[in-house]
C-alpha cells in the first residue's frame, strides 16, 4: 500500500519542483529586466476593459471559427474520401488553403470577397480563419477516418446497418477518437492564428495589445498581458482536450 | 432445398480472374468448406456473397430470392471476419446487441436474445467488458455471437481459426462444427488448411485460379480427386513425375500404363503407403502398387520415421513415413493400396 503512494508523491514532488524552479527563473529574468525597463502595470489596469473586450472578441472569433471549421473539416474529409468531382474539388480546396498564408486569406476575404459581399471585419475574419483551418481539419479527420479498420465497417453492413448508421455509430466515433490529439492541437493553433485578424484592424486581443502599447508606450506590459491571455485560453482548450481524451479512451 | 445458390460468378481484377465461372450451392444447415491456395479466389467468393464485391456477372440466390443486386445490409448474411472486427468502443453486450437494435427489437427481446447468444458461446461473464480486454479466443467467440444473434440465412466464415495457436485450433474446430449443427445455419467456411476442411466440412469445394475444380464430400475429394491439382492439394502426398522415353508401355513398379500426352504424374498418399523390408512376402490385391527401392535417409519424428526413398528406375526421391525402423541403404518395398495413388498425364 505504501509504495504506490510514495511513487505518486514522488511524481507530485517532481512537478512541484519544476514549477517552483520555472517561477524562480522567470522572476529572476523579470526583475533583472526591471532594472533597465521601468514596468508600469497600472496602465494595464487602467485599460482593463479594453483588454477584456479584446479577449472577448478573440474568444468569439475563435469560437465561431472552430464551429465552422469543424463543419468544413468533416464535409471536406468526406468529399476527399468520395470519388469523382467532389473528391477533386476537395483536393483543390485543401491544396489551395494549405499553400496560402493565413494573412493573405484574411486579406482576401475582407478586401477581396468583402468588396463583393459586404462583410464586417469580424465575419470576414471568421470566414477567412474557418476556410483556412477547415482545410487542415479536413486532412486530420480524413486520416482518422482512413485509420478505422475496414472490417469493422463491413461487419456493420453485414449485420444490417445502413451506410448512415455505420458512419454515425461506428466509423465517425472511432475516427474522432483516433484524431482527437491532432484536433485539439489544431484548435489551439486556430486560437493563436486568430491574432492575424489584427491585419484588417479587427479589435481582437493582438490589435488591442498593439493599440494600448503604442498609445501608452507601455508595449512590454501590454504584449505580455495579451500573451498571458492567449496562454490562458489555449490552456483551457488543452485541459478540456486531455479530459475528453481520457473520457473517450477505450480501456 | 438449397439455401444459397451462386450461379456463374465472374470477377476479374485487371488480368487476374478472381472468380471464373463459380457455381456452388449450400443446402440447409450444411457446412461447405472452400479450400484452395493463396490467391485462388476464396475470399472474393465469400465477399461477393456478402455483397462487398461487385460481380462482373453471375447470380446469387438466397432461399430462391435473387440478391445479386442487394446491398450488404439487405442480404441477411452474417460475415465473420478473420481479425474479428469487433467494435472497440462498445462493450461485448453492445457489440452483440447492435444488429438487433437496428432491427428495432424491443429492449426486452434484445436482452433475451443477446443473453442466449452469450450463453450459447459461454461468454456471459464477459458482457460488460470492452473487446480490448479480451483474449483472442474470447474475442472470437464474441464475433461469432454477434454473427449468429441476428439469425442470418447464411453464415460466412473467412479463415476463422487462423489467428489461434495450433492446440486451441483443434478444440475450436470441433466446437464450431457442433455449434453450426446445433444452430442449423447454412455455412460457408473458407480455409487454406485442407486438414481442417476434411475434418469439419459436409462438403468441400476446391478452388484454384478462380475456378472451382471439384465439389464433393471429404471422402469423395480425398478418394476420387478429379485432377492432379486436387489430388496434390488434399492430403499429404509424394509426387513422382515420369517422362515416357518412347511409345512403349510405361512401367512403374509392378504396374504398366499406356503412354499418353505429356508427363506421367503419380500422386501417392504418403499416409497410406506401407514400407516393408524387400525380402518380406506380401500378397498384393488387384491394382495395388508395389515399388522397390532403397532407404537414402531418415528423420526421427517421435512415433515414426520419415524416410527418404530412392525407387529403382525413378529419379525422384519419395518421402514416406513409417513406424518401422530401417537402416540407411536397406532394400525395401513400398505397398500402396489401389485407392491411395492417382495417375495423371499432364
Ligand atoms: N480488391 C482487389 N483488387 C485487386 N486484386 C484483388 C482484389 N481482391 C482480390 N484480388 C486478387 O484476386 C485474387 C483472389 O484473391 P482472394 O483474396 O480471393 O484470394 P484467397 O483465395 O482468399 O487467398 P488467401 O488464401 O491468400 O486469402 C488474387 O490474385 C488477388 O490478388
Ligand atoms: Mg483470403
Radius of gyration of CA atoms of chain A, rounded to a whole number: 23 Å
Largest interface: A-B, 20 and 32 residues
Number of helical elements of chain A? 10
> Quaternary state, please?
heterodimer
Beta strands of chain B, count = 20
Written as H for each helix and E for each strand, in order along the chain, the element string of chain A is: HHHHHHHHHH
How many individual domains of chain A?
A: 2
Note the main attributes of this structure:
heterodimer; A: 251 residues; mainly alpha; 2 domains; flat; B: 346 residues; alpha+beta; Rossmann fold; OB fold (Dihydrolipoamide Acetyltransferase, E2P); 8 helices; elongated; binds adenosine-5'-triphosphate; binds magnesium ion
How would you characterize this protein structure?
The complex is a heterodimer of chains A (251) and B (346). Chain A has 251 residues and is mainly alpha-helical. Chain A folds into two domains: 1-37; 42-247, Orthogonal Bundle (MetI-like fold), CATH 1.10.3720.10. Chain A has helices at 2-34, 42-46, 48-81, 85-98, 102-112, 121-147, 150-158, 163-193, 205-216, 219-248. Chain B is of the alpha+beta class and 346 residues long. Chain B folds into two domains: 2-229, 3-Layer(aba) Sandwich (Rossmann fold), CATH 3.40.50; 236-345, Nucleic acid-binding proteins (OB fold (Dihydrolipoamide Acetyltransferase, E2P)), CATH 2.40.50.140. Helices cover 24% and strands 35% of the residues of chain B. Chain B has helices at residues 42-50, 92-101, 107-120, 136-148, 166-183, 194-200, 218-223, 228-233; strands at 2-13, 16-27, 31-35, 57-62, 65-66, 77-80, 154-158, 186-190, 203-208, 211-216, 237-242, 250-252, 255-257, 264-269, 274-277, 289-300, 305-311, 317-322, 331-336, 341-345. In chain B, the strands form five sheets. A six-stranded mixed sheet of chain B has the order 6-7-8-3-9-10, sandwiched between helices. A five-stranded antiparallel sheet of chain B has the order 15-19-16-17-18, with no helix packed on it. In chain B, strands 2-1-4-5 form a four-stranded antiparallel sheet, with helices on one face. At the A-B interface, helix 7 and helix 8 of A face strand 6 and helix 4 of B. Adenosine-5'-triphosphate binds next to strand 2 and helix 1 of chain B.
Amino acid at each position: 500500500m505504501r509504495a504506490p503512494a510514495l511513487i505518486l508523491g514522488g511524481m507530485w514532488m517532481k512537478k512541484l519542483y519544476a514549477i517552483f524552479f520555472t517561477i524562480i527563473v522567470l522572476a529572476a529574468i523579470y526583475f533583472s529586466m526591471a532594472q533597465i525597463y521601468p514596468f508600469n502595470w497600472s496602465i494595464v489596469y487602467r485599460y482593463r476593459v479594453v483588454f477584456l473586450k479584446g479577449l472577448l472578441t478573440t474568444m468569439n472569433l475563435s469560437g465561431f471559427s472552430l464551429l465552422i471549421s469543424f463543419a468544413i473539416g468533416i464535409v471536406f474529409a468526406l468529399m476527399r474520401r468520395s470519388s469523382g468531382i467532389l473528391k477533386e474539388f476537395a483536393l483543390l480546396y485543401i491544396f489551395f488553403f494549405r499553400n496560402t498564408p493565413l494573412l493573405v486569406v484574411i486579406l482576401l476575404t475582407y478586401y477581396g470577397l468583402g468588396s463583393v459581399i459586404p462583410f464586417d471585419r469580424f465575419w470576414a475574419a471568421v470566414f477567412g480563419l474557418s476556410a483556412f483551418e477547415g482545410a487542415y481539419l479536413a486532412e486530420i479527420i480524413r486520416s482518422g477516418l482512413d485509420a478505422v479498420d475496414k472490417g469493422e465497417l463491413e461487419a456493420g453492413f453485414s449485420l444490417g446497418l445502413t451506410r448512415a448508421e455505420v458512419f454515425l455509430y461506428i466509423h465517425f466515433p472511432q475516427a474522432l477518437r483516433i484524431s482527437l490529439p491532432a484536433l485539439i492541437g489544431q484548435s489551439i493553433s486556430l486560437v493563436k492564428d486568430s491574432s492575424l485578424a489584427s491585419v484588417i484592424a479587427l479589435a481582437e486581443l493582438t490589435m488591442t495589445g498593439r493599440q494600448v502599447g503604442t498609445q501608452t508606450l507601455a508595449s512590454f506590459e501590454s504584449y505580455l498581458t495579451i500573451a498571458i491571455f492567449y496562454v490562458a485560453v489555449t490552456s483551457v482548450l488543452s485541459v478540456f482536450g486531455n479530459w475528453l481524451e481520457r473520457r473517450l479512451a477505450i480501456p | 432445398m438449397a439455401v444459397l445458390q451462386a450461379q456463374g460468378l465472374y470477377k476479374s481484377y485487371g488480368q487476374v480472374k478472381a472468380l471464373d465461372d463459380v457455381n456452388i450451392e449450400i443446402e440447409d444447415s450444411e457446412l461447405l468448406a472452400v479450400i484452395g491456395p493463396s490467391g485462388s479466389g476464396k475470399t472474393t467468393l465469400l465477399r461477393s456473397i456478402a455483397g462487398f464485391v461487385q460481380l462482373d456477372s453471375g447470380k446469387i440466390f438466397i432461399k430462391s430470392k435473387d440478391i445479386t443486386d442487394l446491398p450488404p445490409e439487405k442480404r441477411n448474411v452474417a460475415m465473420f471476419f478473420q481479425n474479428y472486427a469487433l467494435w472497440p468502443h462498445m462493450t461485448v453486450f453492445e457489440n452483440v446487441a447492435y444488429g438487433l437494435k437496428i432491427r428495432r427489437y424491443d429492449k426486452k427481446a434484445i436482452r433475451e436474445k443477446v443473453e442466449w447468444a452469450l450463453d450459447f458461446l459461454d461468454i456471459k461473464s464477459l458482457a460488460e467488458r470492452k473487446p480490448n480486454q479480451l483474449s483472442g479466443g474470447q474475442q472470437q467467440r464474441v464475433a461469432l455471437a454477434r454473427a449468429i444473434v441476428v439469425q442470418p440465412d447464411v453464415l460466412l466464415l473467412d479463415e476463422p481459426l487462423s489467428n489461434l495457436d495450433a492446440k486451441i485450433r483443434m478444440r475450436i474446430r470441433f466446437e464450431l462444427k457442433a455449434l453450426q449443427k446445433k444452430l442449423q445455419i447454412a455455412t460457408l467456411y473458407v480455409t487454406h488448411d485442407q486438414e481442417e476442411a476434411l475434418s469439419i466440412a459436409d462438403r468441400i469445394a476446391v478452388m484454384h485460379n478462380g475456378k472451382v475444380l471439384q465439389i464433393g464430400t471429404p471422402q469423395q475429394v480425398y478418394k476420387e480427386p478429379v485432377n492432379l491439382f486436387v489430388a496434390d492439394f488434399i492430403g499429404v502426398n509424394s509426387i513422382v513425375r515420369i517422362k515416357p522415353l518412347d511409345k512403349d508401355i510405361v512401367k512403374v513398379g509392378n504396374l504398366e500404363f499406356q503412354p499418353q500426352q505429356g508427363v506421367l504424374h503419380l500422386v501417392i498418399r504418403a499416409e497410406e503407403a506401407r514400407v516393408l523390408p524387400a525380402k518380406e512376402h506380401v500378397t498384393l490385391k488387384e491394382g495395388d502398387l508395389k515399388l522397390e527401392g532403397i532407404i537414402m535417409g531418415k528423420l526421427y519424428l517421435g512415433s515414426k520415421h520419415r524416410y527418404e526413398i530412392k525407387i529403382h528406375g525413378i529419379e525422384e526421391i519419395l518421402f514416406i513415413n513409417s513406424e518401422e525402423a530401417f537402416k540407411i541403404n536397406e532394400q525395401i518395398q513400398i505397398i500402396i493400396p489401389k485407392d491411395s495413388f492417382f495417375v495423371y498425364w499432364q
